[in-house]
Amino acid sequence: MKTISVSDAKAFDEYTMREVGIPSLVLMERAALKSIENIDQLKWDLSHVLVVAGSGNNGGDGLAIARLLKLKGVSVDVFLVGNPEHATIERTQQLMFAQKYGVNVINGNPIDWQSYTVIIDAIFGIGLSRDVSGNYQAIIQSINDSNAKTLAIDVPSGLNAQSGEEMGIAVHANATATFAYAKQGMASTTGQAYCGQLFVDDIGIYDPKTIQMGGTQ
Ligand SMILES: NC(=O)C1=CN([C@@H]2O[C@H](COP(=O)(O)OP(=O)(O)OC[C@H]3O[C@@H](n4cnc5c(N)ncnc54)[C@H](O)[C@@H]3O)[C@@H](O)[C@H]2O)[C@@H](O)CC1
Ligand SMILES: [K+]
Q: To 10 degrees, the CA torsion angle through 72, 126, 168, 48?
């Protein structure tokens, strides 16, 4: 399995958006569509799905997935975490799109964690920059304590995708949909345990060197 560093993952994202010019929302839509394919392959019980969305672009992916699930007739709720004033532009736009399609957004109400059959973890991706604490810690604990199957988006939240170690606490996922390439920490023993079944999804972000050589494989 090819793995890349987190700094390369960020650099390849930047290259695709700034140098190639593919808009961020296009990449996000591809990420969400691939995640839906992964969900279909997992054949989990989708009778009640919760998407836990942070304020960064990982949360934007989660909101796009919620919208696509809703359009497939799945009963899906979104739980927003983090300060909405700090949300990225894409995450704010994705919230608007999801609401236009009638996705139910739970804002601050107590969550009945045991009522969900599947939880989509879209709290932190490669933007995790410090130890997880406070409310985030409690939410990740609740995800881990629930009986739901958990799909982590890009990275199990709280996992340092570079070292493969948890940063205080991390989502113990049944499966992870990671984008472009697996990150180095996902190959370690602890990283593998947190990720569960790993899907590496092509969403149109490549190592610039491979593009310049005329292929992406
Ligand atoms: N266009 C893009 O940039 C794409 C981004 N993608 C997704 O976006 C993710 C990266 O998005 P971002 O760079 O916005 O980062 P994240 O969404 O991973 O998280 C960043 C946010 O979390 C906060 N944060 C970090 N550590 C924290 C902690 N311990 N406690 C509380 N808050 C903390 C940061 O201040 C920031 O607000 C990827 O992992 C991937 O899921 C994908 O949609 C593909 C395209
Ligand atoms: K995540």
A: 0
Residue among 128, 165, 181 to mutate when testing ligand 1 (max atoms within 8 A of CB): 128
Those residues with Cβ within 8 angstroms of residue 75's Cβ, 6 or more apart along the chain or in another chain: 47, 48, 49
Give the model confidence (pLDDT) of 115-143 as tens digits. 999 999 999 999 999 999 999 999 999 99
The residue to mutate among 15, 20, 36, 58, having the most atoms of ligand 1 within 8 angstroms of its beta carbon, is 58
**How far is 99 from 2, CA to CA, in rounded Å?**
37
pLDDT of residue 107: 77
Task: Work out how many domains the chain is built from and give that number.
Answer: 1
Range of the domain at 169: 3-207
Q: Is 178 exposed, middle or buried (0-12, 13-18, 19+ CB in 10 A)?
A: buried
170: helix, strand or coil: coil
User: Could you tell me where the beta strands, DSSP code E, fall in 54-143?
Assistant: 76-80, 104-106, 118-122
Q: What is the CATH number of the domain that holds 85?
A: 3.40.50.10260
Stretch 70-88: mean pLDDT: 96
Cα 207–Cα 14–Cα 204 angle in degrees, nearest 5: 50
